[in-house]
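Appendix B. Raw example, untouched.
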Amino acid sequence: MRILWVLVLSILLMVPASAQAAMEEPWRASVTGQIEALRSADGETALSFAGAAFRANYQSNPQRFVDDVARSGYGPIGQSRSHSFGASRELAPGVVLQEVEFIDTDGRVWEAIYQLADERDEGWRVQGVMLRSTPGLGI
């Protein structure tokens, strides 16, 4: 039994920390996918990571989704040069809140809270985001 425990620990130590986090928190892939799509102004891909209600509202014009995100005060997400994950909290089975920190091209720091839901066939999808600027500067 002790050998099995050492083997399991050895395997976990070989997996990079980011991969371990992704395995533990599968919704992070959806957050990152949407952020990267917003950075490249790829409306179709950004919308694919959004919840069903957003997809239904924008399915005929995915580019409008990116435009509306920027117009609604969420432009710093698409204009960010980096992001990192903070704490997450499960609100209910299949519903989580995920903290994300952004650094924009001017070095300003932004904090976001993403609400995500596991939409079964679609996987984890972004249901909403709250964004606020912080007084700090990022590196």
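End of appendix B.
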